[in-house]
Amino acid sequence: MDVKKVKEQLVSAGIEVYRTRPTEIHVAERVRLHIMDSGVRLLLGDEMRISFTARSQRSDFPEGATADELFARVREVIGPDAKERGYAETWSGTTMVHDPIDAAKVLDVWHEVTWTKPAGDTESAIDEVRWALGLERYVPPTR
Fold first, then answer.
1. Which is more confidently placed, 89 or 143?
2. Which H or E run includes 130?
């Protein structure tokens, strides 16, 4: 698959692209006007796949909550909708968020889970990107 052609189709559909790599397109999500993130990706290879990552943040949960509990919360909130739509969990792990001024200082720990599914053609991929962008992928504690 031609990454340039797929990127052009995404942009034509009104989807902002954050970055491209030879086999990956990172879809842009504006955190603020001047800050972007990318938790939704199009993976190109033998087949096109869409991938999205959801997370819980250690700082938002009660003291003493375990990593297993934080992963379980993400799976509990996001998993059913993802599975219903044909996604499968493909990765989970933690990301340390470091202070940009003092790299030795950890500001937070994210517990992330990634789901992936075949995207079919580009039109289907665009629909899936829009669905994933509309999904609240930050998972707070239960209220």
1. 89
2. helix 122-134
- Encoding tokens for residue 107? 């500001």
H/E run at residue 134? helix 122-134
The dihedral over CA atoms of 39, 1, 88, 114, expressed in degrees to the nearest 10, equals -20
Q: Under 8 Å CB-to-CB from 126, ≥6 apart: which residues?
A: 9, 10, 13, 15
Best CA proximity match to 56, nearest among 135, 142, 141: 141
Query: How many CB atoms are located within 10 Å of the residue 141 CB?
Result: 13
H helix runs in 24-121, sequence order: 67-84
Buried b vs exposed e over 103-125: b needs ≥16 C-beta within 10 Å?
eeeeeebbbbbbbbbebeebeeb
pLDDT digits (tens, 9 = 90+) for 68-82: 999 999 999 999 999
Q: What is the pLDDT of residues 90-103, one digit of tens each?
A: 999 999 999 999 99
Q: Global pTM?
A: 0.92
Q: How far apart are CA 99 and CA 80, in angstroms?
A: 34
